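Fill-in record for CRISPR-associated Cas2 family protein.
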Amino acid sequence: MPLTMIVTRDVEMRYRGFLTSVMLEIAPGVYVSPDMSAGVRQRVWSVMKDWWSQLRRGSLVLVWRDPASVGNLRIETLGEPPKTIVDADGLLLVKRK
């Protein structure tokens, strides 16, 4: 079960309350879980997507370890341009779609 991180910016307080019930808030708007299962991660992100589609305020970034992805990382975003991780001759870069 890999480390999962969610970063929030300019979102309603309901996100903070929900996220602190399932993750640690290590800095304002930065939440981590050292061993969140894929099922829990998907359910948490589903709640975030539902709220964001209704409220359309702020942004959220979800990052977790995914051995099948470039750099073993996967990124999902809400309220920001979609991003992907690319390998540029061994250097990992974030590309906006």
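KEY FINDING: The chain has one domain: 4-96.
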